[in-house]
Design brief:
about 800 residues, alpha/beta, Rossmann fold, 4 domains, seven-stranded mixed β-sheet, 27 helices, about 40% helix, DH_E1, thiamine pyrophosphate, oxidoreductase activity, acting on the aldehyde or oxo group of donors, disulfide as acceptor, THDP-binding
């Protein structure tokens, strides 16, 4: 059991003095970084700036109780905290401002995120996990307000899980579950639903979580009184305050941002509650100031009156901290002791300016050196060509006149030169082309790598193991196949857990988890409240801490509640850290072909477009779904698996090798051979397409049916193009809206696979109507593609080319 700050603070006056002065020094360095950062934006050297000035003291206090193994899920103003835990330097702060693409110089995001977005690296270069208990951890920040909150819940709940769950390697992720998850949020963002949903869930689950609210009285220009029902968030939260003897609720602590001693006490108490009692704590930090306003986009003088600005100057945390230090004295052994003199503090102030400036200069010089090296490798090759082409000479002249040069300017020059010299074949042009290809690969890695895993555990690398059947293999309901496969999964992988609405006690609404909670316990097979955004967040946070969570979203339509977190957080974790963090969460849901507007939707195009970075797997039956779970639990990437709602009661032969067989991602399956037309589909629609194909056979049309199985990744071997090459006709069928997923599929087949070369007829798409599906079986028939629709539209393709053989139906 780790001790807490309260239990360890028995120190000498000299150590006390040193700690105070170190805090003052870090606070001053952070402030000078903020001041200098704003100047870098206003002089055009950086694009945008948002800073943590005014929040230095509470962040220093929070850092004192933040220990190895702990995690932060935070707000883009926590630079002082990041400095205090050694996750940030002045150099890396400015490297991020300049968007330096070096992981060594800007380890948080390699230039992919704007400033103030911090992260520590959880992974080794090969994608394997580091020992997260040996470092202080920051989960990668995101900009959407309150978007960091759902993930915080999972980071905290992981500690609860690790108190009870052990597996090979779990010692790298937790020490007996003693870690705390720290969240930070701006006061105005507490008006967001994600804040309330997260806090509500944390209070119900009783997880070790500390949420710090930085309350500066405004949300950009909008005062707090216009943000919420009550100006005082502590007052609003009073109903969440836990009562003695009850295992619900949280502790609420309010403290002033400029009161250093009170801040130390507040965070010491917060840590004690969270670490020793596993109780969530809200630390409401009031009287926060913003000396430079919200960001470099505007001035706070536009919305703060002179009285408010004067108050902020007087109650600036560092000003008050300096006063407190100068006024502090204590008698020890008859001698008055002080912490520092005014002259000593002024010396620290000057040194802080030098430290910030030195960090800025080093970062700028390194950033510029990288650009100069690019210029030196490309521009001389362009100069070798300029005498051969006036257009190239003009482009080079324009380039040389630029006051400051970025990578894009160098690439524009090279591309302009290659365009102007098209059709010519010279040694000089060939040299430029070779160099252009070389530097393009470098920048492709700098800006576009790591959207998906690049490790040996990438899902595409998982070996296919086919289902094994024997004479004793039973025909059972599909839900029995998925249930029994989950049984094998939970037995095989102790780090795997599943949670969602009705997931635990009743074994999910379709009995796919029947008996699992009784067998494996309520911690691993858990019911949740109706709160999809934080079900997803639980999964993200736990996956970032080495567990293998399956977050169940009851129906596909309900995934819409999760799309913000899927798109902004889960899908971008690996990308926005350039392979520094991962969250291999599996989202389990079920969809298609139920009844009515809210339970039978197919928002697949929205998921595809908004969630690049997450694998999208669409099995046609429950055996295929089980195989995908077996695959993804060996992989290190996030995925959504959409089970077929109409498959749970349909009979399937149960494989003998449950828990072992795998379905490969990115691989299609030809389920019916044919020679006249290729029918491409997925999920529940596959059954109807197969029926239609059998009907077409009676009409003299031989249809080949292809089950895509995996939308992302899509047909990696380009097998669909080979089918089209044989049949010369293509029909894409699904139950999304017109131009939705079928548009994506067509782009993949026609553009990427170049299958347009083999077509004798226009490609055809058959989709649902653009409205939501109407209720009941008739609503389904008239809203989504039926067998009749498919047969008639596909038959019409043949009527157009050979009306004598295929006379018109209507």
């Amino acid at each position: 059991m780790q001790t807490t700050y309260i239990e360890t603070q028995q120190i000498s006056f000299q150590d006390f003095k040193n700690q105070i002065l170190e805090d003052y020094r870090l606070g001053r360095i952070s402030r000078e970084m903020s001041y200098l950062g704003r100047r870098e934006v206003l002089t055009g050297k950086a694009k945008f700036g948002i800073f943590g000035d005014g929040k230095e003291l509470p962040q220093l206090a929070m850092a004192k109780v933040f220990r190895n193994g702990d995690f932060r899920s935070g707000y883009y103003r926590d630079q002082t905290f990041a400095l205090a835990i050694n996750a940030l330097t002045a150099e890396s702060f400015f490297a991020q401002m300049y968007a330096d693409t070096s992981v060594e110089r800007e380890p948080a995001s390699a230039g992919r995120q704007m400033n103030g977005h911090f992260a520590t690296r959880s992974l080794n270069e090969d994608g394997s996990w580091k020992d997260l208990t040996a470092q202080k951890n920051i989960s990668s920040d995101i900009s959407p307000t309150a978007g960091q909150m759902p993930r915080l819940l999972g980071l905290a709940q992981a500690s609860t899980i690790y108190k009870n769950v052990k597996f090979d390697g779990s010692e790298k992720f937790s020490r007996e579950g003693n870690e705390i998850a720290f969240g930070t949020i701006g006061d105005a963002s507490t008006a967001e639903g994600h804040f309330w949903e997260t806090l509500n869930a944390a209070c119900a689950l009783q997880v070790p979580m500390i949420v710090s609210i930085w309350d500066d009285g405004y949300g950009i220009s909008v005062p707090t009184k216009n943000q919420r029902a009550k100006a005082d968030i502590s007052e609003m939260l009073s109903g969440f305050q836990r009562k003695e003897g009850e295992n619900q609720g949280c502790e609420i602590i309010q403290v002033k941002a400029w009161d250093y001693a009170a801040l130390l006490d507040a965070y010491a108490k917060a840590e004690h509650f969270a670490r020793t009692e596993s109780v969530p704590v809200v630390v409401h930090v009031v009287d926060v100031t913003q000396p430079q306003g919200h960001s470099t986009s505007g001035s706070h003088e536009r919305y703060k009156n002179e009285e408010r600005l004067a108050w902020e100057a007087e109650f600036d945390g560092l000003v008050k901290f300096k006063e407190w230090i100068l006024n502090y004295s204590i008698e020890i052994d008859g001698k008055e002791e002080v912490i520092a003199t005014a002259e000593e503090l002024e010396a620290i102030d000057e040194d802080a300016k030098k430290t910030a400036k030195a960090g800025q200069k080093t970062a700028w010089d390194s950033y510029q050196t990288a650009i100069k090296e690019l210029i030196q490798s490309v521009v001389p090759l362009v100069e070798n060509i300029k005498g051969q082409n006036a257009e190239v000479e003009a482009a080079l002249t324009h380039f040389n006149k630029l006051v400051s040069k970025a990578k894009k300017d160098v690439f524009h020059l090279a591309r302009k030169t290659l365009l102007a010299t098209r059709g010519t074949n010279s040694a000089e042009r060939n040299q430029l082309m070779q160099k252009y290809n070389e530097v393009s690969e470098i920048e492709k890695d700098n800006y576009s790598s790591h959207l998906y895993s690049q490790s040996e555990w990438k899902a595409e690398n998982i070996q296919e193991i086919k289902p094994v059947y024997s004479d004793s293999s039973e025909d059972v309901d599909g839900r029995v196949v998925i249930r029994n496969n989950f049984d094998k999964i939970f037995e095989k992988y102790p780090e795997t857990l599943i949670f969602g609405e009705d997931t635990g006690n009743i074994g999910d609404v379709n009995q796919g988890l029947e008996g699992m909670q009784e067998k494996y316990g309520a911690l691993r097979i858990a019911d949740t409240g109706i709160r999809e955004a934080t079900i997803l967040g639980q999964g993200i946070g736990m996956a970032m801490r080495g567990l293998r969570p399956i977050a169940e979203i009851q129906y596909l339509d309900y995934v819409l509640y999760c799309l913000q977190g899927m798109s902004d957080d889960l899908a971008t974790v690996h990308y926005r850290t350039k392979g520094g963090q991962k969250a291999p969460l599996i989202i389990r849901t079920r969809g298609h072909r139920l009844e009515g507007i809210w339970h039978s939707g197919s928002p697949m195009a929205g998921i595809l477009n908004l969630s690049k970075g997450i694998l999208v797997l669409v099995p046609r039956n429950l055996t295929k779904a089980a195989g995908f779970y077996n695959t993804m639990l060996q992989a290190d990437e996030p995925a959504i698996i959409v089970e077929c709602l109409n498959g749970y009661r349909l009979k399937e032969k149960q494989p003998d090798n449950l828990g072992e067989f795998t379905v490969p991602v990115g691989k299609i399956e030809v389920t019916k051979e044919g020679k006249d037309v290729t029918l491409v589909t997925y999920g529940s629609t596959w059954r109807i397409v197969t029926e239609a194909a059998n009907e077409l056979e009676k009409l003299g049309i031989s249809a080949e049916v292809i089950d895509i199985q995996s939308l992302i990744p899509f047909d990696l071997s380009h097998e669909i193009a080979e089918s089209v090459k044989k049949t010369n006709r293509l029909v894409v069928i699904d139950e999304d809206v017109e131009g939705g997923t079928t548009g994506f599929i067509l782009q993949q087949i026609l553009e990427k696979q170049k299958a347009f070369r083999y077509l004798d007829s226009d490609p055809l798409t058959i989709s649902a109507n653009d409205h939501r599906p109407a209720y009941a079986s008739d609503g389904d028939y008239f809203s989504k593609p039926s067998t009749d629709d498919m047969v008639e539209k596909i038959y019409a393709m043949f009527n157009e080319t050979n009306p004598q053989k295929y006379p018109a139906i209507f």
